[in-house]
Design a protein that fits this description.
The protein is of the alpha+beta class. It contains 15 helices and 15 strands. The strands form four sheets. The chain has a six-stranded antiparallel sheet with strand order 9-8-11-6-14-13. It is flat and about 85 Å long. The termini are far apart. 31% of the residues are buried.
């Protein structure tokens, strides 16, 4: 042996030393039998028990196993990556390994690694994989990651539903989607995709793809589909003519729609509020040089018909490198706060506007005045609107805009420093 064989530690830090000990199996005192083939992997009890309470229980607790530790449910390549992290606090996550590494992290209660996997997947959310990531988040109880997936779906649902991964998600995730109050898709299209999922689930269970079996695999999720929102002709031709709903449910939808047209709505078995929102924009022209600094903007509005407010459309920063933060409050006609959004971050967009959604949509009573108040942070040059309309047609009614009390009494030195009916930063509303 050369001197280097004895003095390999001299020029290394702790991480490199731990890696060397692991890679060269120096002074190992435990053998793990990993994977279906039970391949041998050598390690050190001290490292394992210091990094995982599950390993601690395996080696030192009252249920400690004797002899070699068998781990059949993790393949050797994956376990060696996981072991490398336990020794060095370092790992390279990829689209191919993140799911299996997350399984290891959750199984052995290595929360820091779970968090890293969660951040990695959050950064990778797109239309192709959002449902796959949501399924993983549901499986491992990653609530924050699942909420990020659902928020992505609000504006990207139609593109995401076209992906192959949608038909593979579980019934619980279907329910999470159908419970959403804001989705940029018609109820008819959403229904068709859900029925496609039900057909795939029937196939997985070796059931015939009949309406009766589709309802069976959907379970209580059938009650979350908003049949009264569908066009009457679509419901009659595509739903009522089949066996997906029972006779009482079909009659209930028809009676609700008849009573709605008569102006005397009866109670519905199904949710009746549309989740398909639309932008109601109030400006005819967009300009570029607005400067803001912790600036408060307010606009009041009324609707002549009952509507649902899903969020607010604001202008984005002018420069691509800039980020804006906005806080939003909604006040009712009694000036009581009824909804808010804290510290929503967004960047420049070629569309010049950005949609900010409320955590839960709110019902807007007709002919009552409500006020939207926004506050932006940082000195950021942003787009802004001029030549505002005081009335905008929406569905069968009109949305009317008014100067809020704060805007009317503004004493700013700058003409652009407050939002009014004619100009400002609040571009529009997200309504259904």
């Amino acid at each position: 042996m050369t001197m280097n064989d004895y003095a390999w530690q001299c020029d290394k830090g702790l991480t490199d030393c731990m890696k060397h000990v692991l890679n060269n199996a120096l002074f190992c005192d435990v053998t793990l039998l990993v994977g279906e083939c039970q391949e041998k992997v050598s390690a050190h009890k001290l490292v394992l028990v210091s990094r995982s309470p599950v390993f601690y229980a395996s080696f030192e607790g009252p249920l400690a196993e004797k002899g070699q530790l068998v781990i059949k449910d993790i393949e050797k390549d994956t376990f060696e990556l996981f072991l490398h992290y336990l020794y060095t606090d370092s790992i390279t996550l990829t689209n191919e390994n993140v799911t299996s590494i997350l399984y290891c992290a959750r199984k052995y209660c290595v929360d820091k690694l779970t968090w890293r996997c969660e951040l990695f997947m959050e950064d990778k959310i797109d239309a192709e994989n959002v449902f796959g990531i949501m399924e993983e988040a549901h499986t491992y109880g990653l609530t924050t990651l699942k909420e990020k997936c659902l928020k992505y779906l609000v504006q990207n649902i139609e593109e995401a539903l076209a992906s192959e991964s949608f038909s593979l998600i579980c019934k619980h995730c279907i329910g999470s989607i159908l419970r959403m109050d804001s989705l940029n898709i018609s109820e008819e299209k959403l229904f068709e995709h859900v029925i496609r999922w039900a057909g795939a689930e029937c196939s997985r269970r070796n059931l015939q793809t009949t309406d009766k079996n589709k309802r069976l695999v959907l379970g209580e999720n059938i009650k979350l589909i908003r049949f009264p929102v569908m066009a009457d002709s679509y419901f009659k031709d595509k739903v009522a003519s089949g066996m997906l709903l029972d006779a009482d449910e079909v009659i209930n939808v028809f009676l609700y729609n008849f009573s709605k047209n008569d102006g005397n709505c009866r109670q519905s078995t199904f949710e009746v509020a549309s989740r398909c929102y639309r932008r109601v924009l109030r400006f005819r022209k967009t300009l570029r040089e607005r400067q803001v600094s912790d600036e408060k903007n307010d606009i009041a509005f009324e609707s002549s018909v009952p509507v649902t407010l899903h969020g607010v459309t604001v202008y984005t920063p002018k420069e691509q490198c800039e980020t804006q933060i906005v806080c939003i409050d909604v006040f009712d006609h009694n000036k009581s706060s009824i909804a808010s959004v804290d510290s929503h971050y967004f960047e420049h967009s070629s569309r010049k506007v950005h949609d900010v959604f409320l955590d839960q949509p709110i019902r807007i009573a007709p002919n009552k005045r409500y006020t939207i108040s926004t506050k932006t942070s940082y000195w950021v040059k942003s787009f802004y609107g001029t030549r505002g309309r005081d009335c905008v047609q929406f569905r069968d009614g009109t949305i009317s805009f008014y100067n809020a009390a704060l805007s009317e009494s503004s004493d700013s030195d700058y003409d652009w420093a407050s939002t009014t009916v004619d100009k400002g930063q609040i571009a529009g509303l997200l309504l259904s």
